[in-house]
Amino acid sequence: MVTYRSLQSTDMDRIMEIEARAFVDPWSPQAFRLTSSYASWVCLLDELLIGYCICLIVEDEASIANIAIEPEHQNQGYGTGLLDYSLVELKMMGARKIYLDVRRSNLAAQALYAKFGFKPLGLRKNYYDSPPEDALVMYWKEDETI
Ligand SMILES: CC(C)(COP(=O)(O)OP(=O)(O)OC[C@H]1O[C@@H](n2cnc3c(N)ncnc32)[C@H](O)[C@@H]1OP(=O)(O)O)[C@@H](O)C(=O)NCCC(=O)NCCS
After folding, report:
1. Is residue 68 classed as helix, strand or coil in its secondary structure?
2. Which CATH number goes with the domain that contains 48?
3. Which positions ≥6 away from 20 have C-beta within 8 Å?
4. CA-proximal residue: ligand 1, atom 44 (nearest)
5. Count of domains in the chain?
6. Mutate to test the pocket of ligand 1, among 69, 78, 118, 136 (most ligand atoms within 8 A of CB)
7. How far, in Å, is the centroid of ligand 1 from the Cα of 107?
8. Which of 12, 89, 90, 100 has CB 3.0 to 4.6 Å from 95, enough for a Cys bridge?
9. Ligand 1 pocket by Cβ (under 6 Å)
10. pLDDT tens digits, residue range 39-61?
């Protein structure tokens, strides 16, 4: 059974474990500490944490800072479920515009965001290191249809 809840500080060891395996350039513990006051949710499969979504919301504008599903559980719909849950929560908190950055080569993530009506906005040249790559900025706005 899949459930969702807010991220708790006791989740961090498990999240760091997933982060290290889900990304070529994982966030450091310091990066997670800097986002500890963000609005964040986790996805549990039979009580095992398999994914997380970390978002910043300021007034009516939100950004998705990090989202990942544990590699062996990817491509089975869990990312869709977690993003759906997180977007509903963000909208209930007042988000009317939502932005995110994604590696240009990360077509799986871009396809996930597109399913929820996110559109490409532009490129941030050389935004990422290790390996260097442009970021595609994507956005969603409440009053714009797909
Ligand atoms: C991006 C990520 C969170 C998606 O989670 P997921 O559970 O694998 O996604 P889902 O199974 O719900 O699939 C969602 C959509 O993504 C797309 N997708 C998923 N895996 C894909 C793949 N390997 N190739 C192309 N598209 C893919 C599909 O469009 C899919 O929708 P559909 O099944 O209705 O066609 C997950 O792949 C992940 O953790 N990746 C590593 C970390 C990462 O890149 N995070 C995003 C940073 S911006």
Report:
1. strand
2. 3.40.630.30
3. 26
4. 109
5. 1
6. 69
7. 8
8. 90
9. 22-23, 67-69, 74-80, 102, 106-109, 111-112, 115
10. 999 999 999 999 999 999 999 99
Q: Is residue 146 part of a domain?
A: no
Closest ligand 1 atom to the C-alpha of 103?
48
Block residue for tokens 């809840």: 5
Residue 32 domain-assigned (yes or no): yes
Find the radius of gyration of the CA atoms of the chain: 15
Instruction: Decide if 61 is inside a domain.
Output: yes
Report if residue 137 sits inside a domain.
yes
**102-141 pLDDT per residue, tens:** 999 999 999 999 999 999 999 999 999 999 999 999 999 9
Structural domain for 42, as ranges: 2-141
Ligand 1 pocket test, pick from 107, 112, 139 with the greatest ligand atom count within 8 Å of Cβ, gives 112
What residues are paired with 66 via a beta bridge? 54
Structure confidence at residue 144 as a pLDDT band (50, 70, 90): confident
